[in-house]
Amino acid sequence: MEIKQFNRETKGFFKALEGEETAGVMTYTWAGDKMIIDHTEADPKFKGQGVGLKMVLAAVEYARKENIKIIPLCPFAKSVFDKRDDIKDVLV
Predict the structure, then answer these.
(1) Ranges for the N-acetyltransferase domain (predicted)?
(2) What span, in angstroms and rounded, lies between the C-alpha atoms of 74 and 43?
(3) What residues does each domain of the chain span?
(4) CATH 3.40.630.30 applies to domain 2-90
(5) pLDDT tens digit string along 19-75?
């Protein structure tokens, strides 16, 4: 599964692709140098494949590389951060 990022000036999203098929999308909004993750959605067809987790981890990798912080407003993304101490360094 490949995770691609589409970054715009005020918003953006991560897309999980399995071949040509979209397995999931996670959207975010920029607030200065902070990424606010506002929605995560995975296609039910890919249930159990960790689609949402892979997109959150891609956002963490991007945040570390760009030295930005993340605000996880999306309940799914927040639950991932709540469960994993190894990624909390990018939280506001």
Answers:
(1) 5-92
(2) 17
(3) 2-90
(4) yes
(5) 999 999 999 999 999 999 999 999 999 999 999 999 999 999 999 999 999 999 999
